[in-house]
Design goal:
With 242 residues, the protein is α+β, with helices and mostly antiparallel strands. The chain is built from five helices and 16 strands.
Length: 242
């Protein structure tokens, strides 16, 4: 019999998407978790929530450049009625710790030296110019929830809290390309790019679906082509045997 009149496989029906999703939900398990450096986690799904190990910041910090003062010492101060301060206040740069006894950081021009004494020439309120301890995160607070993909901002927040490692899920994907035409090549390159963008490790391309399905080192297999009735199409028949 002439093989040109024999079709190796036929698609008898298409599986409804709802059935496919139900099968995935029932059979697919989460990818195993692994601990890696936070710096390498961009785009990966967090397997275990990241908690702040301590308050951030762990002490009150200056929000701006200025002078650390006790706000009650500056009540009613103005350029017309400067109020002498009991001591020359510490000058701080933004981000410096606020010294004990001070509860505000005034602008630089709110304090002037008159003779050998520092004077407040503008009033300050409690907490003005200060980032309180724990303002950004309290100890134990969830910084990044489990299931979320790590973004660059998440990495920066983790580093700021002193977190150096994170437990993530990184799926290993193999792509089977049954066809060698330009469309299949373009599809492979697109899928490879998309998989890498969401944090998957795309393993070396496999040209045989049957052998790919037997690999113990992959979490997912993506097949391109091979579902038609071409001479070399065998994806449907292979899946039917699995």
């Amino acid at each position: 019999m002439n093989d040109d009149f024999h079709s190796a496989q036929r698609i008898s029906r298409l599986t409804p998407l709802v059935e496919v999703l139900a099968a995935i939900s029932a059979r697919v398990k989460p990818v195993g978790a692994q601990k890696i450096a936070v710096a390498d986690a961009a785009g990966l799904a967090v397997a275990e929530a990241i908690h702040a190990p301590s308050d951030l910041p762990d002490r009150a910090l200056a929000l701006r450049d200025g002078f650390a003062v006790k706000s009650s010492m500056t009540d009613d101060a103005s350029a017309y009625a400067p109020i002498p301060l009991p001591a020359i206040p510490s000058r701080l740069d933004a981000g410096d710790p606020v010294p004990a006894g001070a509860d505000a950081v005034t602008p630089l021009d709110a304090v002037e030296m008159i003779g050998s004494t520092a004077h407040a020439v503008a009033p300050a309120t409690i907490g003005e110019g200060v980032i309180p301890a724990g303002m950004d995160a309290k100890a134990g607070a969830v910084l990044i929830a489990a299931g979320r993909r790590m973004r660059q901002g998440d990495i920066a927040a983790a580093h700021a809290c002193g977190v150096e490692t994170v437990t993530v899920r990184r799926p290993r994907v193999v792509v089977v390309r049954a066809s060698r035409n330009e469309t299949a090549i373009a599809s492979f390159e697109m899928i490879e790019t998309l998989c890498s963008a969401i944090g998957a490790d795309v393993l070396a391309e496999d040209s045989n679906l049957d052998s790919a399905l037997k690999r113990p080192d992959v979490n997912a297999i993506i097949a391109i082509g091979g579902t038609g009735t071409g001479r070399n199409d065998a994806s449907v028949a292979t899946l039917a045997r699995t």
